[in-house]
Task: inverse folding
């Protein structure tokens, strides 16, 4: 693929008038002529001619050798930065996965015993939903292997609705 | 030059040539916000947008970009350079939120350009750009180094983690007035359809 050009603008140059502006003031000059204002009409026509000569301030030009070299340097630096960012993002996802597993260990590890003072309704909800929570916890364990780009990760596994535990 | 109140014809003020120069030319050239440059909608891809000879007559600058990258990725960062300084003269910091995670990153040792936004790129869902607003306060001063703050949003896919909201900040280790700004994607080019506008903002 050919290198794309650079869009460059020099703001020290006068901007060309908006589209239709020159035609509009030429029409106004005709009105001035009709009204006998010859000198004003000539001034307006001279300004119209001047404005007409103004070229665009923007140019699309090919990158020069320095810019091409700098572009390559920039893109390598960006690629290096992306690697760092991906590692950081992967670390964040893994940390969340680890937190959620740790927060559910006490209730859903196979050998976990529920606290004696836990309300019976909650114990019942936990016991009734153990398969769903086991599946969720397995999905958490598997999650890192499903991530191909940590900066655009797949949906994070969501906990079962019951019991409604708040994971953070 | 600060904004000067326009004469009130109801109070009997007469609009003279001097009034024209002060209240029309002066205010428009320096005192009020106005676009200095608008790329229009790019008809073809561009590697960068290079705005030169920025007048020092405003208090602050604002850049607005609606842009997409053409690199084969879902996103690409938008980078910025002042006065064509390609040395390691910049620092930047990024806070990012998606519906999945909050994260931060930054360059706390000097690098050669500043990340100032995030754009959707070629493999993002079609038609969705990144939108970026960058403010450069006091760009024409010569006492302090020059900083920027910006916000960006881009949408890359339906589903979790598919959109990015970011806040950016950065510094250029230069005390000179900023008279040139170069914007370019991290990788690849600005895709056709992108647009960059530069505004000058007046002071009071």
Result:
């Amino acid at each position: 693929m050919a290198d794309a050009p650079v869009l460059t603008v020099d703001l020290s140059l006068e901007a060309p008038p908006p589209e239709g502006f020159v035609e509009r003031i030429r029409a106004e000059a005709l009105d001035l002529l009709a009204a006998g204002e010859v000198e004003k009409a000539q001034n307006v026509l001279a300004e119209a001619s001047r404005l007409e000569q103004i070229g665009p301030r923007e140019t699309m030009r090919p990158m020069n050798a320095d810019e091409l070299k700098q572009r390559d340097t920039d893109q390598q630096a960006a690629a290096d930065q992306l690697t760092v960012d991906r590692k950081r993002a992967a670390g964040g996802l893994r940390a969340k996965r680890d937190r959620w597993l740790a927060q559910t260990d006490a209730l859903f590890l196979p050998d976990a015993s529920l606290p004696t003072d836990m309300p019976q309704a909650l114990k019942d909800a936990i016991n009734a939903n153990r398969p769903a929570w086991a599946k969720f916890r397995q999905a958490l364990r598997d999650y890192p292997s499903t991530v191909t780009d940590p900066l655009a990760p797949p949906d994070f596994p969501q906990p079962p609705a019951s019991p409604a535990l708040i994971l953070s | 030059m600060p904004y000067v109140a326009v004469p009130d014809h109801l109070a009997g003020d007469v609009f003279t040539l001097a009034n024209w120069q002060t209240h029309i030319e002066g205010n428009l050239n320096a005192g009020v916000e106005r676009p200095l440059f608008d790329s229009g909608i790019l008809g073809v891809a561009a590697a960068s947008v290079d705005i030169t000879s920025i007048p020092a007559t405003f208090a602050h600058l604002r850049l607005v970009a609606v842009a997409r990258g053409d690199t084969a990725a879902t996103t690409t960062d938008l980078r910025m350079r002042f006065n064509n300084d390609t040395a390691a003269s910049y620092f930047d910091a990024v806070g990012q939120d998606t519906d999945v995670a909050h994260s931060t990153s930054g360059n706390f040792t000097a690098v050669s350009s500043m990340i100032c936004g995030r754009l959707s790129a070629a493999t993002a869902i079609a038609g969705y750009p990144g939108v970026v607003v960058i403010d450069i306060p006091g760009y024409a001063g010569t006492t302090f180094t020059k900083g920027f703050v910006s916000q960006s949003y881009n949408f890359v896919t339906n589903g979790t983690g598919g959109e990015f909201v970011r806040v950016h900040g950065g510094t250029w280790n230069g005390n000179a007035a900023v008279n040139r700004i170069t914007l370019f994607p991290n990788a690849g080019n600005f895709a056709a359809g992108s647009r960059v506008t530069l505004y000058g903002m007046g002071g009071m």
DSSP finds five helices and two strands in chain A. Chain A has a mean pLDDT of 90.
